[in-house]
Design a protein that fits this description.
Number of strands of chain A: 1
Helix content of chain B: 10-25%
Order of helices and strands of chain A: HHEHHHHHHHHHHHHHHH
Helix content of chain A: 55-70%
Structural class of chain A: mainly alpha
Distance between the termini of chain B: 40 Å
Number of strands of chain B: 21
Number of domains of chain A: 3
Shape of chain B: globular
Radius of gyration of chain B: 22 Å
Distance between the termini of chain A: 64 Å
Number of helices of chain B: 13
Structural class of chain B: alpha/beta
Oligomer: heterodimer
Chain lengths: 397, 454
C-alpha cells in the first residue's frame, strides 16, 4: 500500500496548480480518493472531528442494498430462460446465463457513465461526484435482460448528459438519472422495451409450447374477466402458478433484471433504513399510497383491473424497486420531512392510476416517480412556506 | 414555574477521554492571554497598555472602538509581556506574565441588601469597567452585548452536552451564593425574565435548580439540548427585532463576586479532556491560561491537536496557545493527517457516524467510547440533502434550506427561515455529520455577518 501511496504522491504535483496536467486534476483526485481516503484535517475553527461518512460511503451503502436484487436478478434471468425454452437447467447454469446477460450491461452502464463523468469533470473543473456509482448499478437493474448493449450505452449517455450534467452534476439534477435512462429507452425505442422482451430466450428463440411472455401488468391490463383467476391460470403447462401472489412476491417471474422480487427489494429497504441512508418515510408512504389507491379503485371501479385486490398491486411490476431505490434518491426527492410523506403517497397513488387507466403502458412507477421528481420542489416550497409562516405568526402574537 | 421540554432530535457524541471528577491544582498559570477574536462583534480593538506595563486583575488591556465602554481586562496581575499583531496590524492577543500571587484592582463592594436597591445604570457601569460585562452575549448574531440594549430576556444554560464537556456541578461547586446574587443583578438588566435552563438527568445539586427569582426550565434529550440557542427557541423564541442575552453560569458567578467582593475574579476550573491526554481531569486555573500550563506533559504522542473548547465548536490553538475567553475545556485529539487505503469502502468498527452506514451493529455496544481524530473523512462535494441535518437540530428550523439561502446571500430568505435564532454551536452537529463536508459553522457565521453589517 505504501508503494501505491508513494506513486500517487510522486505524480501528484503534475496535476496541481501550475503542473503540466493541471487540467486533469479532478480526474486524478477521483482516483486518489478512490484508493485512499484523503488526509485532510478539520479547519482551525469549527468542528474538529467529522463523521466517518462521506458521499462515497453513502453511495456504497445503496449499492450494498442493491446486491440482493442484483444476485437474485441474475439467477432469475437464467431461471426464466430455462422456463421459457422448456429446457432443464441446473442452478449453476441459471446463474451462468444470468452472468452472461447481466454483466455486460453493468460494464457498459458504468463504462459509459463514468467516462462521461470524467470528461465533464475535466471540462467543467468540478470534482467527480460519486452519484454515478449508484446510477450505474440502477440502470442495469431496470433494463430488460434482452436489451441490446448499444441501447444501454445510448440511454446512459443521454441520462448522464441531459439528466444530470446539464443541471450541474450530482446534487443538482431534477429527475432521477436511472429513470431518465429508462424513460429515454421507453420513448425512443418503444417497440424494443415493451411487449415480449422480458425474458432472454436465446438466439434461436425456441420457446416451450404454450409460452407467453406477457407480464402480470400486461395480463391485468388486458383482462376482461377476473384478473386473479387469469393470473392463476397463466403459465399452465410450462410454468404452473408462475403469477401466483407468492411467486410474484418472491419475484420468480419475467421482468426487468433487478426489479421483479419484492422480497429482495424489502431486504434492500431494510439495509437502507437501518443505515439511515434511505428515508423510511418515503418507502412506507409509496407502499401506503399504492395500497390506498388500490382500495379506492376496488370501491369505485368496475373494470376487472380496478377490481384487483389492492395487495396485488404491491408485488406487481417495479413498485417495490421504485419505492426503495428510486423514490428515496435524496437529490430528487422532497427534502423536507413532511414533504417526504406527501411525495411518497403521491408516487404510490399515481403509480396505480397510471397502471390501471393508461392503456399504452401499464407500468406506472417510472412515470409516477419522474412526475413527482418534478413536483418535489413544489411540495418543499409549501412545507418551507409553512415553516416561515409559523415564525411570522409567532412574532405577531 | 419554568417549562419542561423534552427534546428527541440530536446526537450525543461519546468520545474517549472524559475528565475524571478529580480537581488538580497546579502552580498558577505563567502566561495568560486575551484574544479579541474570541469576542464576536468587536470592531477595532484599541490597546490601552503597552509591553512592559504592570497590570492588576481587572485592569483594562484594550477596548473596542465602537463599544468604547466595554473594557477587556486582565485576568491576572503581572506584566504585559507581548502584544501580538497580525495582518494590517490587527490586534491578535495580549499576553500577560502572571505574578505568583494575584493582586486585584478594586471595585465597589456591596452588601446583599444594597444590591437589592441598585439601579441598572450603576450595575452596567461596574460590569463594563471591570471586564465582567464581556460574559454577556447578545442574540441574534451571538455578539458582545450592547450596553445600551434592554434584552427581552436573559438565558443561562446550566449544562453542557457537547462531546467531553465538563460537568457544571463540578465546575461551579459551592458557588451557590455568588450565582444567586448574579441572578439578582441580571434581573435588573432585562425587561423580562431570567431563565436558568437545567437538564433533567444532571445530578446538579441546588446551585441552579434552587435559583430564586429566575425561571428554571428543565430539558431532556441529547446534544444540542445544552446549547442555549436551542433552549431559547423552546422557551421564548427570538423574533426579528428582539434582543436576548445569554450568559454562562461562570459569568453569573463572576458578577456575584464582583459586587460582593469588589474584584474581577477570573479563576475557573477547566476540564482537560481528549483521548490523547494521559490523565483527563479538572484543573484549577484562570481565564486565558496557556494550554501548555493546563495540559502539562501529560499528552501521548506529538501528532496531536490542542483544541480550546469542545471538539464540535472549538479552536485549534496549538500547544503554545491560550484558552479561549468563553471556554471551560481543553481537548487534545489525534491529528488525522494520514491517508487510509480504501478508507471509504472497508468496514470499520471504530468509526463513528450519525447514520449507521458505518457500524451497522453499533446498537450492540451503546456505551462505546470512540477515539476520533481530526480527519475529515472525505472531500468537499455538492450539497446532497440526505435529511440528516433535520435529525440533528431540535428546533422548528430547516437547516438545509437555511444554509442554501446563506450561500445564495438572500437576506430576506435567511430571516424568514430563522437565522436570528441560531449561532454556530447550534448547528455544529450538522457540520460534523455533513456527507458533503461543508464548513457549516463558517457558512452560518458568514450569513450572520452579512446581515449584521448590512
Amino acid at each position: 500500500m505504501k508503494f501505491l501511496r508513494k506513486q500517487l504522491d510522486s505524480v501528484k504535483h503534475n496535476f496541481e496548480k501550475g503542473g503540466k496536467l493541471e487540467k486533469y486534476y479532478f480526474a486524478y483526485e477521483a482516483f486518489d480518493t478512490f484508493l485512499f481516503s484523503p488526509n485532510t484535517t478539520a479547519e482551525t475553527k469549527g468542528a474538529q472531528i467529522r463523521d466517518a461518512i462521506d458521499l462515497k460511503r453513502l453511495m456504497m451503502t445503496v449499492i450494498i442494498a442493491m446486491i440482493p436484487c442484483l444476485i437474485f436478478g441474475m439467477w432469475n434471468v437464467g431461471h426464466q430462460h430455462f422456463l421459457a425454452t422448456g429446457k432443464t437447467g441446473t442452478f449453476g447454469g441459471e446463474i451462468m446465463i444470468g452472468l452472461i446477460k447481466v454483466l455486460p450491461i453493468i460494464v457498459v452502464s458504468y463504462g459509459v457513465g463514468l467516462g462521461i463523468e470524467f470528461i465533464f469533470s475535466t471540462i467543467r473543473r468540478h470534482p467527480v461526484n460519486e452519484g454515478f456509482l449508484v446510477t450505474g448499478m440502477l440502470i442495469p437493474l431496470v433494463m430488460p435482460p434482452d436489451i441490446p448493449l448499444w441501447q444501454v450505452a445510448v440511454a446512459t449517455a443521454f441520462a448522464v448528459v441531459i439528466g444530470k450534467e446539464a443541471f450541474g452534476g450530482t446534487g443538482m439534477n431534477v429527475v432521477n438519472i436511472a429513470l431518465t435512462a429508462r424513460a429515454f429507452l421507453y420513448f425512443a425505442y418503444p417497440s424494443q422495451i415493451s411487449g415480449e422482451v422480458w425474458t432472454f430466450l436465446g438466439a434461436e428463440k425456441a420457446t416451450v409450447s404454450g409460452y407467453s411472455g406477457a407480464t402480470p401488468l400486461a395480463i391485468a391490463a388486458e383482462s376482461t374477466t377476473d384478473v386473479v383467476t387469469n393470473f392463476n391460470a397463466f403459465g399452465a403447462g410450462w410454468a404452473d402458478g408462475i403469477y401466483s401472489l407468492w411467486n410474484m412476491f418472491l419475484g420468480v417471474i419475467p421482468g426487468s433484471i433487478g426489479e421483479t422480487s419484492t422480497l429482495m427489494c424489502l431486504i434492500g429497504a431494510f439495509i437502507l433504513v437501518a443505515t439511515g441512508v434511505g428515508s423510511w418515510k418515503i418507502i412506507v408512504s409509496v407502499f401506503a399510497g399504492a395500497w390506498g389507491m388500490g382500495l379506492l379503485l376496488n370501491m369505485l371501479g368496475s373494470s376487472p383491473f380496478t377490481q384487483l385486490p389492492a395487495h396485488y398491486h404491491l408485488v406487481m411490476g417495479g413498485l417495490a424497486f421504485g419505492a426503495v431505490f428510486m423514490a428515496t434518491d435524496p437529490v430528487t426527492a422532497a427534502q423536507t420531512e413532511t414533504g417526504k410523506w406527501v411525495y411518497g403517497l403521491l408516487i404510490g397513488m399515481f403509480t396505480i392510476l397510471i397502471r390501471v387507466f393508461n392503456p399504452a403502458y401499464p407500468e406506472g412507477i417510472m412515470l409516477a416517480i419522474l412526475f413527482m421528481n418534478v413536483f418535489a420542489p413544489l411540495i418543499d416550497y409549501f412545507v418551507v412556506s409553512a415553516n416561515k409562516k409559523r415564525r411570522i405568526q409567532r412574532a405577531t402574537v | 414555574m419554568g417549562k419542561f421540554i423534552r427534546l428527541k432530535k440530536g446526537f450525543t457524541i461519546n468520545l474517549a477521554g472524559k475528565a475524571a471528577t478529580k480537581v488538580s491544582e497546579p502552580p498558577p498559570a505563567e502566561t495568560v492571554a486575551i484574544k479579541p477574536s474570541d469576542f464576536q462583534g468587536t470592531y477595532i480593538p484599541k490597546l490601552l497598555v503597552k509591553e512592559g506595563d504592570a497590570v492588576k486583575a481587572g485592569t483594562p488591556l484594550f477596548h473596542d472602538k465602537k463599544l468604547e465602554k466595554v473594557m477587556f481586562t486582565s485576568p491576572v496581575s503581572g506584566e504585559v509581556v507581548k502584544v501580538t499583531r497580525g495582518e494590517k496590524r490587527k490586534l491578535v492577543e495580549v499576553v500577560v506574565l502572571a505574578d505568583k500571587a494575584i493582586e486585584y484592582a478594586s471595585f465597589k463592594k456591596y452588601t446583599v441588601s444594597e444590591i437589592g436597591n441598585l439601579h441598572a445604570e450603576d450595575i452596567k457601569e461596574q460590569l463594563l469597567a471591570s471586564g465582567v460585562w464581556t460574559n454577556l452575549v447578545q442574540r441574534p448574531f451571538g455578539i458582545l452585548a450592547e450596553p445600551n440594549a434592554v434584552p427581552k430576556a436573559i438565558h443561562i444554560s446550566a449544562f453542557d452536552t457537547a462531546p467531553l464537556a465538563p460537568e457544571y456541578s463540578i465546575l461551579f461547586k459551592g458557588q451557590d451564593h455568588f450565582f444567586q446574587v448574579g441572578i439578582d443583578i441580571l434581573k435588573k438588566l432585562t425587561s423580562g425574565l431570567v431563565h436558568v435552563n437545567i437538564h433533567t438527568a444532571s445530578d446538579l445539586s441546588t446551585v441552579f435548580s434552587q435559583a430564586k427569582g429566575a425561571e428554571v426550565n428543565k430539558f431532556s434529550g441529547p446534544h444540542p439540548s445544552g446549547c442555549v440557542g436551542v433552549q431559547i427557541h423552546h422557551v421564548d423564541p427570538i423574533n426579528k427585532g428582539d434582543v436576548v442575552w445569554t450568559i454562562n453560569p461562570f459569568g453569573v458567578i463572576q458578577i456575584g463576586k464582583l459586587f460582593l467582593q469588589g474584584i474581577y475574579d477570573a479563576s475557573k476550573l477547566v476540564a482537560v479532556t481528549g483521548s490523547e491526554v494521559t490523565t483527563p481531569q479538572y484543573v484549577k486555573t484562570v481565564t486565558g491560561a496557556s494550554v501548555r500550563h493546563l495540559v502539562g506533559g501529560g499528552v501521548s504522542g506529538d501528532n496531536v491537536r490542542y483544541i480550546s473548547g469542545n471538539p464540535l465548536t472549538g479552536t485549534n490553538v496549538g500547544k503554545e496557545g491560550h484558552l479561549g475567553f468563553y471556554d471551560h475545556q481543553v481537548t487534545v485529539l489525534p491529528e488525522g493527517n494520514h491517508h487510509e487505503f480504501m478508507g471509504w469502502i472497508l468496514p470499520g468498527g471504530n468509526k463513528l457516524s450519525v447514520q449507521r452506514a458505518w457500524g451497522l451493529f453499533s446498537f450492540l455496544t451503546p456505551g462505546k467510547e470512540f477515539k476520533l481524530d481530526t480527519n475529515t473523512h472525505g472531500e468537499p462535494r455538492a450539497i446532497v440533502q440526505t435529511g440528516v441535518f433535520e435529525q440533528l437540530v431540535p428546533m422548528d428550523i430547516l437547516p438545509g434550506h437555511l444554509l442554501k439561502s446563506i450561500l445564495a446571500e438572500d437576506i430576506d430568505e435567511m430571516e424568514a427561515l430563522g437565522i436570528y435564532e441560531v449561532i454556530e454551536e447550534d448547528l455544529a452537529l450538522c457540520e460534523f455529520a455533513d456527507v458533503s463536508k461543508h464548513n457549516v459553522q463558517e457558512i452560518l457565521r458568514d450569513g450572520l455577518e452579512l446581515i449584521r453589517l448590512s
